[in-house]
Design a protein that fits this description.
Protein name: Ig-like domain-containing protein
Organism: Huso huso (Beluga)
Shape: elongated
Keywords: Membrane, Signal, Transmembrane, Transmembrane helix
CATH topology of the largest domain: Immunoglobulin-like
CATH superfamily of the largest domain: Immunoglobulins
Largest sheet: 8 strands, mixed
CATH architecture of the largest domain: Sandwich
Helix content: 10-25%
Number of helices: 7
CATH class of the largest domain: Mainly Beta
Length: 478
C-alpha cells in the first residue's frame, strides 16, 4: 500500500512539473480585468484561421472562433461573444473577465502559436471613499497559471511596500493618498487611493473671540469629491456650560439666526456672528460620506468685560487651559495681576485704584501668541453681553438710561413734525375747495341756449327719469 501511494505521488508530481514546464513555454500575456486584449498570430494568414482555448494545461482545446472562407464559426467558450478575428489573424477580446484566463492557441494550416493569458485584478475590502484614520485592504489577484508572485509598490516610488498580494493599512493618513501599483512580473496594475480628511487649520482646535464678535469654524474636505456617487453631509453640534447635553446647532433657533453656512460642495464650514459668553463650548463637525464618518471638534472661548463692585473684570468663558490674560493701559504697559479660576469662567480683575489711564485693553494669549483682545474706556458702560438682549429686560430700562436733553429733543422734534404735517394737509384741502368754487362760478356766467331753456322746463324725460341742467350736472360731479 505504501509503495502504491508513492507511485501515485510520483505520477502527480511528474504531471505537475510537466504542466508547469508547459505553461512556462507559452508566451505570458498579462492584462487587467475589463480591458481589451489582442493576441497576435505570427503566422502568415491563409483562408482558414482557428483560435482555441483551454482552462489549464491538462485540458483539451475548444474552439473559440474560426474562419472558413468567408464564414465565421463560433464555439461554446465563455469569451465567444466578445471575441473577433482581425484582418491580421489576431484574436481581439473585449471586456476581459477573470474566467477568460487560460491558454489560447492560434492555428493556420497546421502551424500553431500558443499564449498563456493571465488576468490581474484588484479587489478592495470595501468600496471608497477612504477616510482619514480608517483602514484599507486591497487584494491583488492573478487568474491563471503563473509562477510570479504579486507585490505592492508605494505611490511615486518603485520601492516595495508589501511583498504580499494583500495591501493592508490599519490607519490611513493623507500621505497614503496616491496611485498604488500591483506588480506581477513586468506588468503593473494601478489602483488609485484617495484619502479624504478635513483640512488642517492653524487654530489647533481652539478658537477665541471677543464678546459681540464673529467666529469662523472651518470644516472642509481636503480634496474635492471626484466621484459623482459620493455625497458628503455635514452636521454641526455643540456642548456648552448651560447645555451639557449635545445639541444640533441648526435646531437652535436663537443660534440659527446668527449662522452663515458655506454653499460649496464638500465645504461644511460655518460662521457664527454676535457671539456672547453663552456660546462658549465645544463645537463638533460630523461629516458623513456614503455611510463613512469622520469628525473635527473645536473649543470656543469668549472674552468679555464685566463690572463688579466698581472694579472692571476681564472674563474668559470656556476652557482656559494654556491661556493667559493681561490688562494693559493706553501706552501698552501691562499690569501684574492674578487670574482667578471660577466654575464657569476665568477672571482677571482691574481694581478701580489702578485706573489711571484713559483707555485699557484686556489681552488673551495662548503661549506668547495674542489670540484676541477687548477695549475698555473708564466712565463708559461695560459691554457685558446684555446689549443684544435689551428686549428681555424691557424697553423702559433702556429709555431711562438715555440723557434728559436727548429725550427733550426727541419730544420737541415730534411736536414740530406733527404741526408741519397738519399745516400741509390744511393747505391742500383749502386749495381743492378754491378750485371747486372757481369752476362753479365760471359755469354760472355762461348764457343758456334755447335748447337748454327747453330742458330746464322739462321735469321728466321720455323714459320717465328726471333730468338736470348742464350746470347742475357739472356741480354734481364735484
Amino acid at each position: 500500500m505504501g509503495n502504491e501511494m508513492k507511485s501515485v505521488m510520483r505520477v502527480w508530481l511528474k504531471m505537475f512539473i510537466l504542466g508547469f514546464l508547459q505553461a512556462a513555454s507559452y508566451g505570458n500575456i498579462y492584462v487587467s480585468k475589463k480591458s481589451v486584449v489582442t493576441l497576435p498570430c505570427d503566422v502568415k494568414p491563409q483562408t482558414q484561421v482557428a483560435w482555441s482555448y483551454k482552462k489549464d494545461v491538462s485540458s483539451a482545446y475548444t474552439n473559440i472562433v474560426k474562419t472558413v472562407g468567408r464564414n465565421t464559426l463560433f464555439g461554446t467558450t465563455p469569451m465567444k461573444s466578445k471575441s473577433r478575428i482581425l484582418s491580421s489573424a489576431a484574436l481581439q477580446i473585449q471586456d476581459v473577465e477573470t474566467d477568460f484566463a487560460g491558454f489560447y492557441q492560434c492555428e493556420i494550416s497546421g502551424i500553431k502559436k500558443e499564449y498563456n493569458l493571465l488576468v490581474v485584478s484588484v479587489v478592495p475590502e470595501h468600496p471608497g471613499p477612504y477616510l482619514q484614520s480608517s483602514s484599507l485592504k486591497l487584494d491583488c489577484l492573478v487568474s491563471g497559471s503563473s509562477g510570479e508572485r504579486p507585490v505592492w509598490l508605494q505611490p511615486g516610488s518603485e520601492e516595495v511596500w508589501s511583498s504580499s498580494s494583500t495591501l493592508e493599512i490599519k490607519e490611513l493618513t493623507m500621505r497614503h493618498s496616491g496611485t498604488w501599483r500591483c506588480r506581477v512580473g513586468s506588468f503593473k496594475l494601478e489602483q488609485k487611493v484617495e484619502v479624504l480628511g478635513i483640512k488642517a487649520d492653524p487654530s489647533s482646535g481652539t478658537l477665541s473671540v471677543k464678546n459681540g464678535g464673529s467666529v469662523f469654524f472651518p470644516c472642509e474636505l481636503s480634496s474635492i469629491l471626484t466621484e459623482s456617487q459620493y455625497q458628503s453631509e455635514g452636521v454641526w453640534s455643540r456642548v456648552t456650560q448651560e447645555s451639557p447635553a449635545e445639541q444640533k446647532i441648526l435646531q437652535l433657533n436663537k443660534v440659527k439666526k446668527r449662522l452663515l453656512l458655506s454653499s460649496s460642495k464638500g465645504n461644511h464650514s460655518i460662521s457664527l456672528s454676535k457671539v456672547s459668553p453663552v456660546d462658549a463650548g465645544r463645537y463638533t463637525c460630523l461629516v458623513q460620506i456614503n455611510g463613512a464618518k469622520m469628525s473635527k471638534s473645536f473649543q470656543l472661548n469668549v472674552l468679555s468685560v464685566e463690572s463688579s463692585g466698581g472694579n472692571v473684570v476681564c472674563c474668559l468663558h470656556g476652557n482656559a487651559s494654556g491661556f493667559q490674560m493681561g490688562w494693559s493701559d493706553a501706552e501698552g504697559q501691562a499690569r501684574d495681576l492674578q487670574m482667578q479660576q471660577g466654575k464657569s469662567k476665568t477672571t482677571l480683575t482691574l481694581p478701580m485704584a489702578q485706573m489711571n489711564s484713559t483707555a485699557w485693553k484686556c489681552n488673551l494669549y495662548l503661549g506668547s501668541k495674542l489670540q484676541t483682545s477687548i477695549d475698555y474706556t473708564p466712565g463708559t458702560a461695560v459691554d457685558d453681553g446684555s446689549s443684544s438682549n435689551v428686549g428681555s429686560r424691557g424697553w423702559v430700562a433702556a429709555v431711562l438710561k438715555m440723557e434728559l436733553w436727548v429725550l427733550i429733543s426727541i419730544c420737541v422734534g415730534g411736536v414740530i413734525l406733527i404741526a408741519l404735517v397738519g399745516v400741509v394737509i390744511g393747505l391742500l384741502v383749502r386749495r381743492r375747495h378754491l378750485k371747486r368754487l372757481t369752476r362753479r362760478r365760471r359755469l354760472q356766467k355762461q348764457p343758456l341756449t334755447p335748447r337748454q331753456y327747453c330742458q330746464c322746463q322739462r321735469k321728466r324725460t321720455i323714459n320717465g327719469s328726471r333730468r338736470m341742467n348742464s350746470y347742475q350736472e357739472e356741480d354734481r360731479d364735484y
